[in-house]
Amino acid sequence: MANAVKRLIPLLDRVLIKRAEAVTKTAGGIVIPEKAQSKVLHGEVVAVGPGARKEDGEFIPVLVKVGDRVLLPEYGGTKVSLENDDKEYHLFRESDILAKIEN
């Protein structure tokens, strides 16, 4: 799994994000049905591209880095499946990311 993620390098200002797992059980132990679960709107940055290019060819650096937790829009991003990995990854443009979550 780690090798597949390391081999995937996003282009330009794109960011590869692993969405957080949906909560399937309450603190009291009640199992939440799949239809009642809310969509997960945050995730962890797994890989980052070099950034967008200016007209003179220089790169504009990306504001997020690997390991950052970010807030995502409800819709958007491109779903990416990696070999031998059952986790859900999405590719977003940096401008689509809503916020960076501080710890």
UniProtKB/TrEMBL annotation:
Alphabetical list of CDD domains matching this protein: cpn10
Highest taxon, organism lineage: Eukaryota
Alphabetized PROSITE patterns for the sequence: CHAPERONINS_CPN10
GO cellular component: mitochondrial matrix
Molecular-function annotations in GO: ATP binding; metal ion binding; protein folding chaperone; protein-folding chaperone binding; unfolded protein binding
UniProt xrefs under InterPro entries: Chaperonin_GroES, Chaperonin_GroES_sf, Chaprnonin_Cpn10_CS, GroES-like_sf
Keywords, comma-separated and alphabetical: Chaperone
Family statement: Belongs to the GroES chaperonin family.
Protein name: 10 kDa heat shock protein, mitochondrial
Species this chain originates from: Parnassius mnemosyne
Lineage, broadest ranks: Eukaryota, Metazoa, Ecdysozoa, Arthropoda, Hexapoda
